[in-house]
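User: Hey, quick favor. My workstation is busy. Could you predict this chain's structure for me?
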Amino acid sequence: MRKRWVSGILTGVGLTGLYLFNASWLAASPEGRPNILAHRGVHQTFDRTNLGKNDCTAIRMRPPTNPFIENTIASMRASFDLGADQIELDVHPTTDGEFAVFHDWSVECRTNGKGVTRELSMTYLRTLDLGYGYTADGGRTYPFRGKFVGQMKTLNEVLATFPNRRFLINIKSNDPDEADQLVGYLKARGLEANKRLSIVASDRVLDRVRAIAPHFRVLSVDRAKACSLKYIAVGWSGHVPESCRHGTIGIPINMRWAFWGWPNRFLQRMRDADVEVIVAGPIGSKSGDPGITDPAQLRAIPDRYDGSIMTDDIEKIGPAALRRWPR
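Assistant: No problem, here it is.
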């Protein structure tokens, strides 16, 4: 009986210590407001049901709720006006030394052109109708045809149009040489050390980015997920895994309880380890969108949260976030 009593006390003491060590209320609240990251900016949403990696999303468009398509100047301007602090955009090198801002590996899905994007010239890409392939009714109507002719821009044109805004540049290929091309491209324009620019890409490409331009903040989706799993496993000890440091951790909004010390203690640990925190959409979401799409989900985020919130619906999330966290 006495052994059980002692064992119970020791267990209770241990659990109490574990709780206090990870107690959010014993850590200082962060200062500042969240960074609202608009994935795709204002864009035409699409049905992700049974979506394959190479499926055309333009023909899966839902009925339009706005007049914009992604990766255009108008879409970006609208995104910032709605409350985005940072926009993810996609880039491809061109045969004439530019970087085209466009999502797809080839141009057939969205435009009236043909060919692999990186095997085409910017001169040719500028002639395309970016809204040509969008349809919400199986091809009976194409509401954006003729409205986005000549709207594809270079990365330099985008950055010049929004000189004080933050962007997450998505390198679409798995070719490390593209890291050299992009870093050289930005350096030639005096942008290689600009803190408003981050890069997301495959691990292979990001390893090269870190080797030649370690000052860039980089985001690996696979490594962010791996970091999350490792921290859930060992975070009770206060340890931030080495693979997380100077990187990014992703927090599914419906799994935040699993991250030891959430929110204040957790955020303090991530700041100390130079880890960028991104709250994303819920695991098991019916829509399949990687970012938050329902303003009600913002209620789960603390008032003094200072990490990033990724959204796939800046139309709804941006205004709700501005009401709660005014600039």
